[in-house]
Specification:
about 30% helix, about 450 residues, globular, 13 helices, alpha+beta
Length: about 450
């Protein structure tokens, strides 16, 4: 077993939006940070085949429920931000405040770090425009969505957001990791963390497997950011056995329709949408890459549709699912959809069908279910406190797992804000500790200067 001694101020496990944000902000303050990432850091090529090993490996990046519902995540530097659509929904500030967590300042500060504006019309292309107009005609409160996209770098008729944008237009957490590395952070990829090393009820390091060998690294602060599935598994191995239960995973379906004259279908997904907040349903356009559509169609035996891509408008329906289920120790998910969940998917699909029919669509059909954004497995108020600290000193969690309840929207803005808030807390705590050390040293020196001390010496 090999070890890295205490040469770091913090170890960050995972490099998705939470881990990358903490790593960046700590290094910018002068801290020495080690980032451990299970996946690769290979270049972003924006292709299906480069994305396969990151996001479509059964048992690793794709895990199945007993209902054969796939739960998808990305195992790579940048985490699932590498394959997300770059949609920046506002974080649930009021909900988090009710749990003693105020991220309102950080939610504003992040706007200086990442782009968060709707796409200009010229980048939306035909499909999203048709969706926007049709939903508006029907009286839905539809509007353009904020995107983590720099329009000056974005390409028209492009659909590579979900493959890792090769143009640098879509923000992903790798950009924060790169900033941390430029300031001296160290990144070790293909390092699978097994457990947190706990001594005297405090975290002192991590144990991980790299190049078929077990290694240990030590630091005074450990930030676990391995995601809604990864973090609870590591916590269980570290002694927090109650992690990984009663969570959410945002089920979704796609409803497709053929619209003559629509074109080749290439456009940024989730450019416009409707949020039925009371029902817990989100409806957006979703022009997905050709290979993904083929996969979804073959799953439901739509053989003819699988190879008919042009003039197709997919509409995504995503719901706020009920809490429940458990993550197994090997990373599989046991979480059946409730009857209420199924009714929401049906209700949302009917909204999508109305929009498609109003737009003149034919050959309308619905995909099988998939889930994304697993979270709530290490909830604030249960397994971490308002500063995201576990019951072990020096051990923090910062990813979607800490969300205290389901809310049914993409979580990236919330996780970035939580990461910024956690970094501030760690920096402030370190400064307070240094002041105490200096004060104690001063007292010690004064004591040594007394006549009694002089006599003893």
């Amino acid at each position: 077993m090999q070890g890295i001694k205490t040469e770091f101020d913090a170890i960050v496990v995972g490099s998705g939006p939470g881990g990358a944000t903490v790593a960046k902000d700590l290094t910018l303050s002068g801290k020495k940070v080690l980032i451990l990432e299970w996946g690769d850091n290979d270049p972003k090529k924006g292709t299906f085949f480069s994305t396969l090993p990151r996001a479509f490996v059964p048992g690793k990046s794709v895990v199945m429920t007993k209902e054969a519902l796939p739960v998808v995540r990305a195992i790579t530097t940048g985490g699932s931000s590498m394959i997300f659509c770059g949609t920046a929904f506002a974080p649930p500030i009021d909900m988090l405040k009710s749990y003693g967590v105020d991220i309102s300042v950080e939610a504003e500060e992040m706007k200086n770090d990442v782009p968060m504006l709707p796409l200009p019309d010229e980048l939306m292309n035909a499909g999203p425009h048709v969706f926007l107009e049709s939903a508006g005609d029907l009286g839905y409160n539809v509007h353009k969505l904020n995107k983590f996209i720099d329009p000056s770098k974005c390409k028209t008729r492009c659909q590579l957001c979900m493959y890792g944008c090769p143009f640098g237009a879509k923000w992903d957490a790798r950009q924060f990791v790169d900033q941390a590395l430029e300031k001296g952070a160290r990144l070790i990829t293909r390092a699978k963390v097994k457990k947190i090393i706990i001594e005297n009820k405090q975290a002192v390091g991590v144990e991980y497997k790299h190049n078929r060998e077990i290694h240990r690294a030590y630091a005074p602060n450990i930030i676990l950011a391995a995601g809604g599935i990864g973090s609870p598994i590591i916590l269980r191995e570290s002694g927090i056995r109650s992690a990984g239960y009663d969570f959410f995973f945002d089920p979704l379906v796609f409803v497709y329709g053929k619209i003559k004259g629509l074109g080749n279908g290439k456009s940024v997904p989730m450019s416009a949408g409707v949020h039925f907040e009371e029902d817990g349903i989100v409806m957006t356009d979703f022009n997905m890459p050709r290979m993904l559509k083929i996969g979804f169609d073959l799953e439901i035996l739509k053989l003819k549709q699988a190879f008919s891509y042009a003039d197709t408008l997919p509409v995504m329906i995503k719901i706020r699912d009920d809490l429940g289920g458990a993550v197994s120790n090997n990373g599989w998910v046991n979480k059946p959809l409730t009857n209420a969940d199924k009714r929401k998917l049906d209700k949302g699909s009917e909204h999508a069908r109305r929009v498609l029919v109003n737009a003149g669509a034919t050959d309308i059909y619905r995909s099988y279910k998939v889930a994304a954004h697993p979270g709530g497995t290490v909830k604030i108020g249960e397994l971490v406190d308002a500063n995201l600290k576990t019951r072990f000193d020096n051990l923090y969690v910062c990813d979607c797992s800490v969300m205290p309840r389901e809310w049914g929207l993409p979580p990236t803005t919330s996780i970035i804000a939580l990461g910024k808030r956690l970094a501030k807390h760690l920096i402030a705590a370190d400064r307070a500790g240094n002041k105490q050390d200096h004060a104690a040293a001063a007292v010690s020196r004064e004591t040594m200067d007394t006549p009694m001390a002089a006599a003893v010496n």
